[in-house]
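Pasting as-is:
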Amino acid sequence: MTGSATLKAAEALRELIFKGILPPGSDHLEAELADRLGLSRTPVREALARLEAQGLVSIRPRRGARVIGLSARDMDDVYEVLTALEATAAARAAALRPADGALSPMERAIEEMDRALEIGDLDVWAAADEAFHSALVTLSGNGRLIEAAAIYADQVRRARMITLRLRPPPHRSNEDHRAVLAAIRAGDSDLAHRLHAGHREAARKLLTDLIRTHQLNQV
């Protein structure tokens, strides 16, 4: 029971952070968060420990948890690591030559992104974009890579949501995804690696430029 409550607390706190309800640099006591979530302090304490391991909060004895903010420089560093991890995942996936059925989650994500742009729903697009990247990393078959990529993807998620409506419509991103998927389907590891690295590098530049242009000191 405690495990499920901890998971519930962790997911709820992640959403509050990603939506900016718990903003960067803000401090929160266990009791406050437990009251907000309608849970006891034990699962909240355990959830905060998980979020600290994921780089989302820092826990300070007797002072509660502080939501960690990321600067443009921090985002550069995080994207550098995330790009290396996901490009490696793309290359591994291509080398494994997955069956069409295994590629279905990526295909569905691209279709959902296309529909989202047609109706101008950026929130749906962002969710489908995350689904694409998650499915790509899962195809690598490397459990440690999957775990590490999830941590760094979480660290950029809040920044992506904050800047989502400041960026141009992400049509290029959809095309990048199609090209990466085609390379994986063709079993071309080098091309899949190069294309995905280029895709993530373009995202890094766009995001950090937006942070600097709009003078977002922390996201």
